[in-house]
Amino acid sequence: MRAAGRSGRVRMWDRLAASDPGLLRLTAGLRTVAAIALTLAVLAVLRVPVPHLVAGAMAAMVATFAIREKQRGPQAVTLALGLPVALASVSLGALLNRWVVIGDLFFVVLIFCAVYGRRFGDRGTALGLIGFQIYFLSLFVGATTSALPALYGVICVAFACGAAARFALLPQTPAGTLDRLRRAFRARLAQLLATQAELLDAGPDDAEKVLADLRTGTARLHEAALMIQGRLEDGVSDPAVARLLQRRIADAEIAAERLGLLLLTARSARRTDTLTLHLPGAPLPTGSELPVRDEASDALRRDLEALRLLVLRPAGEASGTALAQVRNRLLGYREEENLPPASPAVQDVFRGLGEAARAALGLRVAMEGPQDESDDTPATARSREELDAEDAAIEVSEESEPEEPEPAGLQRPTTRAAVQVAVGSSLAIAGGELLSSQRWYWAVLTCWIVFLNTASTGEILVKGYRRLLGTVLGVVAGIGLAALVGHHTWTAFALVLLFIFAMFYTAPLSYTLMSFFVTAMLGLLHTYSLSVLVLRIEETALGAACGVIAAAVVLPIHTDRRTNDLLVTVLDRLADVTRGAVDQLSGGAGGDLVEQARALDQALADLRAATQPLTHPITPLRARRDTARYVVALLETCAYHGRSLAATAELLPTHPSIAADPRLRGACGRIVHNIEAIAAHVADPRSGAETETGPSIASMLEPGTLRTPRYGRVTDRVLRHLQRLDEAVSGLARPLGVAGGPVQPRT
């Protein structure tokens, strides 16, 4: 019973780790609630009036969520600098409250400076946010000069409680966060393997749902990998260890994605297009080479579950002969003689299982150190030797990518955003005063918020719509909850803290949900009547409209322009990865391929976020939405093949079955040319760049190249990736309107 209970807790913890990588959202929500509760407890003991309790709660919330640095030292410095900024801001708010025009003008200047401060990094962003929010606090509680000494004390208590919650109650170190992210990656990898196992038995009725789950699981695994890459520099002191972990994470991600593609192919009478795994709504291939029930299919089901358990089980629980036998059996599939009798497509799945098991072994060694080797078979020993050789060959690159020059003047993003939000806030102040001379600042708050983490008019429009929708739903929920709670103060207080937690926990997932919880929380405060909550809806709508108008009129960055700029960046990164990988596979020096692949993934993530206004369900341009989804899916397909080429190229110095093939450089020339031609056309439609067409990549090489074993040699696998990459790049040319030309001879 005790073991079963422990197993249940482990499974629950793994699910939580997978849904919230690094427990970052959980920690943010709990830390904010702890800071607010601690502040209110101290202020209640001091018997401060209710308005000061509200001010303390707001100041504690700001002091907690504004700090963004990952290291504890910089966090403490920013928090210490934030206190005088907060005291100065509340002082100016109280002093200027008597002069409406001067106060409004100063508020606009403060907003401009707060947004402009983002150019100075996380600390500038945090100090600007504290300055704005505390000035807003002074307006919210109606601060006066006579009340300033008490407010100073309240703010100092709030910052002290925020520091206690951050550094004592819920401490979070970069190394601890990275460790939890690694656990989340392992949990998400196990979930993806479970979905792949479901694909084996999925019937016609539920096959599409399983395919959708497969796409979601693959995307979630990639998200976790990117989060780990973003935390490696701060979480690992040794650059060589960080590089090794980054490499092993990339290997496991690629192996899992390849295994999914091989399973899809085994369900089909023909090879599955990689795009099927990345394009939402793409149909599942029809026909199947996978028997419903035979020895091979039963072994696949058994081994997928075995691989999932192998991924999930920590090293401390992996001792004993049972798991060692499972590991040895899976790694044995990398040898041709150990493959069970089955069709070529099904045998490919077993090979994929072997590669995934090798990636899982490398991931375990990188995360948890050397393992017990006493039960190794020859196949397992060879896999370990390969991993050891790769580990020894990893060197930290001393070269750094030259930084792109930042635009100057009004073209600098922070300057442009500061001017836009200042104009939008001016409109919001004027319009908000017409709606209510007492609560006009709600419109300004909305205008400010819709500009946070947005860079185009379309993004601001979508964010404003989400805030308005969340506010409307929150008003309805708040009124209903207030009627149910009545005068039960402690119940209302508990719900308020719960909503604050939910607000921060859901913020990275859904801005609509975050707005819903903050508005519902206000509805629980009985000082807000129905008319005031309706006014909040009106002010929110006004603030969102002012933000959109300012973004569309003042130094606008249209969604098309931003997505085109990001698309060019993705294509440039893709060309770098492809060129570097093939150059290394051809016998040259490809550079830091791991870092180039990471730059490609980050650029693609930025593009995916920027296209949300184009792919949002409310967009009226359906054809444009479908085109945007198709282009992003094609780019994700290209990125997968680019990452795979880079991973294969990095094996070259250490893998005994991989040898450089100079002919690959010529086969790659057309692909790189086409990528560059598409990038040139997107950057300037008048460029006249044309893509080249011609024979398949495989036929461009001399006869005899493909006489190597089907899966055991590098050339076959590299050619497959190059062929699919060539097809995907050619597919990009059509929706982007790039003309095609005849093939050019290449050396």
From TrEMBL:
Q: Where is the composition biased (Acidic residues)?
A: 387-406
Sequence intervals crossing the membrane: 21-44, 50-67, 76-93, 99-117, 124-144, 150-170, 441-461, 468-486, 492-509, 516-535, 541-557
**Region (Disordered) spans which residues?**
365-415, 686-709
Q: Where in the cell is it found?
A: Cell membrane
Q: Integral membrane bound transporter domain location, by residue?
A: 428-549
Q: Which InterPro entries match?
A: Memb_transporter_dom (IPR049453)
Keywords for this protein: Cell membrane, Membrane, Transmembrane, Transmembrane helix
Annotated membrane topology: Multi-pass membrane protein
Principal cellular location given in the protein's record: membrane
Q: Where is the signal peptide?
A: none
- Pfam families named in the record: FUSC_2 (PF13515)
Q: Which family does it belong to?
A: Belongs to the YccS/YhfK family.
Which named protein is this?
Answer: FUSC family protein
What organism does this protein naturally occur in? Streptomyces bangladeshensis
Q: What is the lineage of its organism?
A: Bacteria, Bacillati, Actinomycetota, Actinomycetes, Kitasatosporales
